[in-house]
């Protein structure tokens, strides 16, 4: 199976959103950039923070859209067009309400599950849903009406620490993820609990 050439971490720009639950994906890319000593630069034509890195011998692109979450697709579309990257070679890292903090799930394809960032990416990739997703659990506030508020708040220190541990754990598998060896990663990662 083909691997991933573009790794996209979703979040909202600006200090007020830093370390909020909705920014778990952006946090993941920041951690990967630190780990691989890659400098993310603000890139206007991609509407995001952008960097190039070599992972497992493959050249990969790292992207954190600096549009707001619900416009994430604009940045993804721009990079895909510029570098001729098909949706199948894109991995989107995002926060996931349906799984608890301290867990992560990896999958290929699927719907948007109400996530505004995914919704926009699917729309901008001409409704192609075949990109990969690494879902970082943030838990659910219990009621749909509380979701908007919940995702834009900083997690409790305990939950935040769990998210950081989950990010560290999933980064251990980044070589396999980039190469597209998803099954062994899923077996390991899906049983991990911070």
TrEMBL record:
Per UniProt, subcellular location reads as: Cytoplasm
One molecular function GO term is: peptidyl-tRNA hydrolase activity
Gene3D superfamilies, A to Z: Peptidyl-tRNA hydrolase
Where is this protein chiefly located?
A: cytoplasm
> Which residues make up the annotated site Discriminates between blocked and unblocked aminoacyl-tRNA?
12
State the UniProt keywords alphabetically. Cytoplasm, Hydrolase, RNA-binding, tRNA-binding
- Classification via InterPro entries: Pept_tRNA_hydro, Pept_tRNA_hydro_CS, Pept_tRNA_hydro_sf
Q: Name one Pfam family in it.
A: Pept_tRNA_hydro
EC numbers on record = 3.1.1.29
Q: Where is this site: Stabilizes the basic form of H active site to accept a proton?
A: 95
The active-site annotation reads 22
Amino acids binding tRNA? 17, 68, 70, 116
Record's catalysed reaction(s)? an N-acyl-L-alpha-aminoacyl-tRNA + H2O = an N-acyl-L-amino acid + a tRNA + H(+)
The similarity comment for this entry is: Belongs to the PTH family.
User: What does the function comment of this entry state?
Assistant: Hydrolyzes ribosome-free peptidyl-tRNAs (with 1 or more amino acids incorporated), which drop off the ribosome during protein synthesis, or as a result of ribosome stalling. Catalyzes the release of premature peptidyl moieties from peptidyl-tRNA molecules trapped in stalled 50S ribosomal subunits, and thus maintains levels of free tRNAs and 50S ribosomes.
Q: How does it assemble?
A: Monomer.
What PANTHER family is this protein classified in? PEPTIDYL-TRNA HYDROLASE
Q: NCBIfam families of this UniProt entry?
A: pth
Q: Which HAMAP family match?
A: Pept_tRNA_hydro_bact
Recorded protein name is: Peptidyl-tRNA hydrolase
- Provide the species name: Marinomonas primoryensis
């Amino acid at each position: 199976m083909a691997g991933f050439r573009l790794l996209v971490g979703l979040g909202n720009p600006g200090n007020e959103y830093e370390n909020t639950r909705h920014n778990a994906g952006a946090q993941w890319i920041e951690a990967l950039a630190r780990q691989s000593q890659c400098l993310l630069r603000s890139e206007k034509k991609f509407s995001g923070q952008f960097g190039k890195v070599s992972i497992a011998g493959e050249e990969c692109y790292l992207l954190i859209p600096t549009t707001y979450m619900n416009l994430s697709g604009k940045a993804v579309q721009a990079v895909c067009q510029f570098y001729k990257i098909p949706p199948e070679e894109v991995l989107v890292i995002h926060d996931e309400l349906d799984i608890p903090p301290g867990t992560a799930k990896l999958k290929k394809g699927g719907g948007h599950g109400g996530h505004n960032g995914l919704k926009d990416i699917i729309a901008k990739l001409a409704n192609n849903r075949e990109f990969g997703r690494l879902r970082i659990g943030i838990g659910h506030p219990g009621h749909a009406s509380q979701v908007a508020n919940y995702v834009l708040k900083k997690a409790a220190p305990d939950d935040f620490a769990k998210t950081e541990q989950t990010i560290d754990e999933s980064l251990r598998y980044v070589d396999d993820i980039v190469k597209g060896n998803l099954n062994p990663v899923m077996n390991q990662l899906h049983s991990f609990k911070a």
